[in-house]
Amino acid sequence: MKSLSLAESSTAGSSNTKKVGGPTLPIKEMIVRFLKGKDCLLQLRLEIDPKLQAKSVREDERQKTDFWMSDHRFLKQCVNPFASTLQHLCIVDYGQQSIMRKSSIMSILSVTCNRLKTLDLRNMFIDMSDCHRMTSLTSLTWRCVKVNGAALRNVKDSMTNLSTLALLGVFGAEGGNLTFQHMTVLCLGLSTPAEDLVMNLPTLKKLQLKMQCPKNLVIIAPVLRYVAFNLEVPESSKVELKCIDAVPKSTSSHTVTESHINYSGQVEGAGLEELLYGAASFIPMSSLVEKNPNLKKVFLDIPCMTLAEDGRFLAPLKDVPLSLPSFDHLHNLRKLEVLNIGPGLWYSLEAKVDTLISVEKWPVINTLYLHMIPHNREASLKVLGLLLGTSVTSLKIFIHSSSPVSRDELATGIEEQVSACELRSGNIIICKHYYHLKGN
User: Residue ranges of the domains in the chain?
Assistant: First the structure.
């Protein structure tokens, strides 16, 4: 057997016991018995059913060692039979309340599973202080995880061959001065602000910043090509993205002092190809665009829309300021092929349509993607008319199905705008929460 996935279902009665042939057994003992003898396992996934994860745990049960999947005794019993062959491991523990108990899971895995290549851990309190070297590990994902303060430095010291690092909802990391020679993909989602974080990443190509901003963030990535920037930078913080590859002496550094964003980049021959930007302030975006004239795809949004768990639109966030990007900066993007506008920015465009009318010259755009939660029919159609005057040759419009202004209310006006620009409107496709209108 090469691969095995085990999921504890929410229909199993008690959260930690189940009957097998009469006697009641703890679920973890069942798992250990099931895994016994499977000595050639390459891949294992242990996951608690999402509905069960959502259930709260009584206060008097939160310290029980027989309850959590990341308990050290259970882990040793699980992985020992196939520790010499296991290469891919994923463990999803009992909801976010699992971070109440500290686990030595990294110490155990680093000693017993020396062939491990990919590791995905969710809903845990991970202690990295006693982690040994894991030179075979190339991909690490932590999601909804609490860690000790020096965790990132521990990762750097023990996992020197990482190519992918995804930190999504990680609490407690204090930062550090980190170098990863082989990393190509990095997602930084720190839920508590680090003091200082300096990262030297000579092979990094894809970067996502979606986190609480550190007081000092420096990322040195000479071959960076794709950036997703969702970072609010307070006045007390400083962020530097240094994408310099054999930069000639004449190349200068551009500093945006208003937001304490410093961006250094090579003007010709290299730089970003794709930018996904989602923040209330567009000042950092202007700096990124100015220093990367070879951008081919740009996605712009403001994170101001709230959705229910099932995807229904609820309301705009009142405490997020509505702003507009400087479209003039897009004129320098001579290779721009695709512009995406997200629902938050569309809402801002509607609210500030009178300001848009004053724009004298729009950038050249080939393919335009519009993701809408329209609130005002007349304003939406005005904005669409302005954008379609930018030499658009391909248009795709996504309308959220629970928008204040429905697809049916907009459809006729949209089709008239499309026809006037000699764009052929396609079929309307109803998705779960979006209507999709396409023109070519």
Answer: 31-146+157-163, 175-245, 272-435
Q: Encode burial over 31-68: b for 16+ CB neighbours within 10 A, e otherwise.
A: bbeebeeeeebebbebbbbeebbeeebeeeeeeeeebb
Give residue 104's identity as a one-letter amino acid code.
S
Nearest alpha-carbon partner for 47 in 133, 174, 115, 143: 143
- 13 by Cβ neighbours in 10 Å (0-12 / 13-18 / 19+) ranks as exposed
Quote the tokens at residue 266.
Answer: 């090579």
Q: Rounded distance, CA 335 to CA 274, Å? A: 11
Give the separation between CA 118 and CA 48, rounded to whole angstroms.
Answer: 19
Question: In sequence order, which ranges of 50-112 are alpha helices (DSSP H)?
Answer: 50-53, 72-79, 105-112
Strands 206-210 and 226-230, how do they pair? parallel
| SS3 state of residue 325 | coil
User: How many residues are present in the chain?
Assistant: 440
Considering only CA atoms, give the Rg of the chain. 25
d(CA 292, CA 221): 14
- Inter-residue contact 311 to 289 (CB < 8 Å): no
| CA-wise closest residue to 231 among 265, 187, 177 | 187
Three-state DSSP at 317 gives coil
Q: Indicate whether 12 pLDDT > 70.
A: no
pLDDT at residue number 351: 95
Q: How confident is the model at residue 141, as a pLDDT?
A: 98
Q: What is the largest CA-CA distance in the chain?
A: 79
- Give the global pTM: 0.82
Q: What SS3 class is residue 159?
A: coil
Average the pLDDT over 157-182 and give the result. Answer: 94
Q: Which of 151, 91, 152 is nearest to 123 (CA)?
A: 91
State how far the Cα of 384 lies from the Cα of 326, in Å rounded to an integer: 17
Residues 6+ apart with CB under 8 A from 58: none
**Cβ contact 374:403 at 8 Å:** yes
Residues 302 and 323: beta-carbon distance below 8 Å: yes
Shortest CA distance to 80 belongs to which of 36, 118, 43? 36
Neighbouring-strand partners of residue 103:
126
For residue 106, give every residue at least 6 positions away whose Cβ sits within 8 Å of its Cβ, in sequence order, or none.
126, 127, 128, 130, 131
Q: Which residues contact 433 (CB under 8 A, 6 or more apart)?
A: 311, 312, 313, 400, 401, 402
Position 11 scores a pLDDT of 39
Q: Which amino acid is at 1?
A: M
